[in-house]
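Friendly challenge for the regulars: who can give me the structure tokens for this chain first? No prize, just bragging rights.
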Amino acid sequence: MTYIYTPDDAQSIADVIASFLTKRKYKVFREVPISKDASFRTTLLAKKADLSIMVEAQHKPKLDDSLIALAQLLEKKNSYCEFYVATHEKANFTGTLLKQLEKNGIGLLVVDASDQLMVVKEPKNPALIVRPDPTLKYGNYKEKVNTCLGNFNSPNSSLTTKNPRKEALGDMCDMVEALTKDLALLAVKKRMLKLAPANIDAKDWSGVIDTLASKNSYWLGKNPIISANLRFDLHSFRGARNLLKHPAKSKRQEAERQEQFAERMMMGPRLVADLVSIKSLIAKKKK
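First reply, four minutes later:
Bragging rights claimed.
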């Protein structure tokens, strides 16, 4: 298939990348828009399962208004995609260009003299960016929550084997689990739970959640300090651990799992805020 809009000096770059993607079972199209409302046709559009990869091949890499507008459209639509500018290894790209790519979530691919592909800058997938309610309050956990979110939202290319999202979600699970247990220990200290600290320490996360929600765990006249809804949400979030343990068996399953990572990660900050709020109220109570 020939190119119509791609300059001659960028076509060899595009051909290398098209071959690379084809070998990895992507269906590759040339100069086809990703959607009807996309005003710009990238050099390549590759699809596999639910993931779309767009590549704009350039001999002299630059980020013009049309590319920025496309990146903004993809972000607005939360598209499940990755967007790259591609060039050759002898091309000059300035710090300004790299900052522009970073700002707009666009990756950078470089083809070397032996036609090998390098991911120089990884892109952001708009559908996998987690943006919690900015009004949530995390108390002393603010820095930890923001670190987890920053790591989860960091650029990550499907063309590499790195997966910072998995580790970040694991860290968020650890944080919520520790906070759940801290809340239970505080309830024991305030004589709300008729248990000893050792009883709490002996329980797994699931057991601590159920204890906090069970009326049988409290002294007569005292009500559970977490609601049935919060109990359900904590157990649902706890299920993220299963996502982390079991590898996907296909690319479609991996795409689904990545979206589930984002859904679970979205729950994490809200649960931290809820538990911190309850813990603050309990701390003020007299024994």
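The beta strands are 27-30, 44-48, 51-57, 81-88, 107-111, 117-121. The chain has two domains: 8-126, 130-283. Your move, everyone else.
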